[in-house]
Design goal:
Blueprint: E1 6-7, E2 16-17, E3 30-33, E4 47-64, H1 74-78, E5 84-88, H2 94-107, E6 113-117, H3 129-141, E7 149-153, H4 157-168, E8 174-179, H5 182-193, E9 195-197, E10 201-203, E11 208-214, E12 233-245, E13 265-271, H6 275-290, E14 296-302, H7 311-323, E15 331-336, H8 338-350, E16 357-361, H9 364-370, E17 375-380, E18 383-390, E19 396-398, H10 408-425, H11 427-442, H12 447-466, H13 481-490, H14 497-514, H15 520-533, H16 544-558, E20 565-570, E21 573-577, H17 585-596
Parallel strand pairs: 4-11, 5-6, 5-7, 7-8, 8-11, 12-19, 13-14, 13-15, 15-16
Antiparallel strand pairs: 1-2, 3-4, 4-12, 9-10, 17-18, 20-21
Length: about 600
């Protein structure tokens, strides 16, 4: 990750000087993307594009008299007037007072419910990543949505686990920390910079830190009253994520030494799907160390499976990095598909508060989707990508040579992600895929695959730059993923990610026809492309009752109480179905019947 005034706008993707960035705005906004990114058919070697955005962190500390007076709306307003509030249990009796305040708000009809959840600590009384995971999973199971909040009392291992759970749940859930004792206030302010978690984990990039002091109950060591600045303090950084084409990386013709230094150690976490790839990564790193480009190397093979992208996998990487004595100058390298990129990105996010890392995707999905965004996530509580954050790598290096090591189904799954963004955002790219998908599958290193890859990266970066931290819940890149993630999990991962997304896109497109948003000839053209590629458009799991429940519960909870279902409105154009009530049972029945007639 390049911060400050350094961006990746040159051919190498790093080291160019950017103009100063104004600081003090309340939200992350678009700085820009590489204006020279080529459209399909006008490629140039090297840089595919650089996503550049502002990242801001807001910290506020406020003292409020009468904080727990049921008639005082301050605390509820600070929580954002949520429907649900999770209160992690803590040793302080103050938690009971807060619960009574929330009960009063529920009786007044201002709150649907508050949920007290146990927060476990380690044997020696410390907060842990496991405790944060359990809290977050329990909160999600209780129906906590994107517009809901955590209310944490005091400063203890339990409260720190609650704050960590909020920071990681769906990459950011609002948390308000209430303190009524001076030691708790001091601890809360220290925790605003760094939340330490066992093992070897820390969270240092909380997007919003809100501390509220109960002025009536805080005992001060001297006379006088406590004053706190009502205004928020903000910190802003310019974040750049260059995406580069690096042909020959897998063969040793290109090298990684530009990203290492003589005194740096390198830990490469490599998907072990191919013994040849693991061996070549070792050989490449050995050459770098022998040439003085790094001080030491370690290769950690991992097996990508349905259970890989979980907390236990993250903790294994954290422990390995700790045994190696990794510091801020050392480098973690992720080599693999989307699962491995997410796993390693989450470990890099958490290792001692954030470590530099590189992404080297080995699948088409990784090159055009998982590898080029800011977010990282792992699965938890039976839910896809429930825990994570935003931690861009130094760069994403794409070598099409890796695609030759994959079976054809993986190329087809990658094309599903290209079709996804083309269908709702770029008609020209859609037409390219129609003409060239067969050649791309036959020749992954060929010009057809390169054109599709570059075009998909360009369109995805444009979408990500406009909404990098997903503060806007209506996101075109979610097309097919609302149903797709749920289908993937419900199938027991029988459906690959790209296959599940394809079925999800077909369902959403069918509902677009049913609601009058998409003309039938365009729907037919879309479905024809998916089936020609060899992707499914239907699965027996697509039962209307299940789909309706998913829309009203899982999808809506993830998007602030409404589904905001992405649907195509034409070829290269997208819109949203914002209300679940607009999708009726007969519509779901007809969509199921229509899609069940198609075969790959």
């Amino acid at each position: 990750m390049n911060v400050g005034d350094i961006t990746g706008t040159g051919e190498t993707g790093a080291g160019s000087q950017a103009p100063p960035v104004p600081v003090g705005t309340a939200s992350a906004g678009l700085v820009g993307t590489d204006p020279a990114r080529p459209r399909p058919g006008t490629e140039r070697p090297g840089l595919a594009g650089a996503l550049r955005v502002l990242r801001t962190t807001t910290v506020s500390v406020t003292a409020e008299p009468g904080l727990l007076d049921p008639a005082n709306p301050f605390l509820l307003d600070t929580l954002g007037r949520p429907r649900r509030v999770v209160v992690p249990d803590s040793p302080t009796p103050y938690t009971d007072l807060v619960a009574r305040y929330l009960d009063a708000q529920r009786v007044r009809g201002l709150l649907t419910e508050h949920i007290r959840l146990p927060a476990q600590t380690t044997a020696d009384g410390a907060a842990s990543l496991g405790a944060a995971e359990r809290l977050a999973a329990a909160a999600a199971a209780a129906g906590l949505g994107r517009r809901d909040a955590f209310l944490v009392c005091g400063d203890s291992a339990e409260s720190r686990a609650g704050l960590a759970a909020a920071a990681l749940l769906r990459r950011h859930t609002l948390a308000v920390q209430v303190v009524a004792e001076l030691p708790d206030l001091i601890g809360a302010v220290r925790g605003a910079r760094r939340l330490g978690l066992r093992p070897q984990a820390a969270i240092t990039d909380r997007r919003q830190v809100t501390i509220v002091i109960d002025q009536d109950r805080l005992a001060l060591p001297g006379a006088g009253t406590l004053t706190a600045a009502p205004a928020a303090v903000e910190r802003a950084e310019l974040v750049s994520l260059p995406v580069e084409f690096a042909p020959g990386l897998v063969d040793g013709a290109a090298t990684l030494d530009r990203w290492t230094s003589a005194d740096a150690r390198v830990l490469a976490v490599v998907d072990d799907y191919s013994a040849s790839v693991v061996s070549r990564v070792r050989q490449t790193l050995d050459r770098i160390v022998a040439a003085g480009g790094a001080s030491a190397r370690e290769v950690m093979p991992v097996t990508s499976s349905r259970t890989t992208k979980r907390r236990e996998g993250v903790e294994a990487i954290l422990r390995r990095a700790d045994r190696l004595g990794f510091g801020s100058r050392d480098l973690i390298v992720a080599v693999g598909g989307g699962t491995v990129l997410d796993l390693v990105g989450t470990a890099a996010l958490l290792y001692r508060g954030g470590s530099p890392y590189l992404r080297i995707p080995t699948t088409l999905v990784g090159m055009i989707d998982a590898g080029i965004g800011l977010k990282v996530a792992i699965d938890a509580g039976g839910r896809k990508n429930l825990l994570g954050g935003y931690h861009p790598p130094l760069a994403c290096l794409c070598d099409p040579g890796f695609l030759d090591t994959l079976p054809g189904i993986e190329m087809r799954c990658g094309l599903a992600e290209a079709v996804k963004i083309a269908m709702v955002a770029d008609e020209e790219l859609f037409s390219h895929i129609e003409r060239e998908h067969a050649a791309a599958v036959r020749r992954p290193r060929g010009p057809e695959a390169a054109r599709i890859m570059r075009g998909a990266i360009r369109v995805m970066q444009d979408q990500l730059a406009a909404n990098p931290y997903e503060q806007e819940l209506r996101r075109l890149p979610d097309f097919g993923h609302e149903f797709g993630h749920l289908l993937e999990t419900a199938s027991g991962f029988r459906l690959r990610h790209g296959e599940a997304v394809s079925v999800g896109m077909a369902l959403s497109a069918g509902l677009a026809v049913e609601t009058g948003r998409l003309a039938r000839p365009r729907f037919d053209r879309f479905i024809r492309l998916l089936t020609e590629i060899g992707l499914p458009v239907f699965d027996p799991l697509c039962e209307p009752g299940r789909l309706s429940r998913w829309l009203n519960e899982d999808v809506s909870a993830n998007k602030g109480g409404r589904p905001h279902l992405v649907v195509p409105t034409g070829i290269g154009a997208g819109g949203f179905i914002d209300l679940a009530a607009e999708i009726t049972g007969p519509m779901l029945n007809r969509t199921r019947d229509l899609l069940s007639g198609y075969r790959r």
